[in-house]
Amino acid sequence: MALRFTKMHGLGNDYVYVSLFDQALPGDPSPLARAMSDRHFGIGSDGLILIAPSERADARMRMFNADGSEGEMCGNGVRCVAKFVHDRGIARKDRVTIETGRGVLTLDLEIRGGKAERVRVDMGPPILQSSDIPTTLPGDPPIDVPVEVGGRVLPQSAVSMGNPHAVAFVDDVAGFPLETIGPEWERHSAFPRRVNAHVAQVIRRGEVRMRTWERGSGITLACGTGACAVCVAGVLSGRTERRIVAHLPGGDLELEWPADDASVFMTGPATEVFSGEWPG
Ligand SMILES: N[C@@H](CCC[C@H](N)C(=O)O)C(=O)O
């Protein structure tokens, strides 16, 4: 049977969204994620996100990368899930809760003309114990640890936002060869569950530029959890303020990690592109 889907993106970080509120998945989501994500033979996306009923929240999300692996969390994705449940009338309110691989998150929606446009997410506290990130790099968390990858030594900081991230502050993100180093960095032995890898450049203490190589999907135009990790690494290394704007290839995200060291807050857009049916 055909599967209804909606294509949405947060700053060009695009996923195919399948609601399981009114239809069932025919089988294993991993091969489906690989087939749908293919930019030549499929719909074309950075992965697949399932939106399902939850006993603890307005909805539950599961995210699969373009290679079919499952990620615990997706920052750009969770904003789009909030938009979907609001705009489709599953939870028509300006504060919604979504169950994710890192627990139930609360999201505040800016609504215009009856549709959610921007979303502020309480992303929960960063995970800073190296064994929980997980990484074998020293420190809780590891900050600016020199690590050799792709023939160069990068000062790496590791942070988990439910999913693992490595951040290297560099002088020039635009000129950094992330496309060539990304595959090796993602699978570096210091990260036993692989890693989402980011280079970031401080413009001023409240503003950074960053680029991302995502675990399981490669280069993406934005990464919400990654931007949170950059914010936390910037604060812990003394480079940035607790409130920053991150410029990503697909647009800007606002991040804040208040002085209580608890939740990181992320604000950005959620955009619907089109809907269709995937043949059964
Ligand atoms: N694009 C996402 C992160 C997606 C998950 C990642 N590839 C993983 O495997 O952890 C975001 O916006 O946070």
UniProtKB/TrEMBL annotation:
Question: From the UniProt record, which GO molecular function terms apply?
Answer: diaminopimelate epimerase activity
Gene3D superfamilies, per this entry?
Answer: Diaminopimelate Epimerase, Chain A, domain 1
Any idea of its EC number?
Answer: 5.1.1.7
Residues the UniProt record annotates as site (Could be important to modulate the pK values of the two catalytic cysteine residues): H165, E214
Which residues are listed for substrate binding in this entry? N13, N65, G75, N76, N163, N196, E214, R215, G224, T225
Q: Which SUPFAM superfamilies match?
A: Diaminopimelate epimerase-like (SSF54506)
Q: Catalytic residues per the record? A: C74 (proton donor), C74, C223 (proton acceptor)
Q: Which GO terms describe its cellular component?
A: cytosol
Keywords, alphabetical: Amino-acid biosynthesis, Cytoplasm, Isomerase, Lysine biosynthesis
Its predominant location is cytoplasm
BP terms from Gene Ontology: lysine biosynthetic process via diaminopimelate
One Pfam family name is: DAP_epimerase
List where in the cell it is found: Cytoplasm
Q: How does it associate, per the subunit comment?
A: Homodimer.
Classification via HAMAP family:
DAP_epimerase
PANTHER family tied to this protein: DIAMINOPIMELATE EPIMERASE (PTHR31689:SF0), DIAMINOPIMELATE EPIMERASE, CHLOROPLASTIC (PTHR31689)
Which family is it part of? Belongs to the diaminopimelate epimerase family.
Among NCBIfam families, the record links this protein to: DapF (TIGR00652)
Q: What is this protein called?
A: Diaminopimelate epimerase
Per the UniProt record, the source organism is Tautonia sociabilis
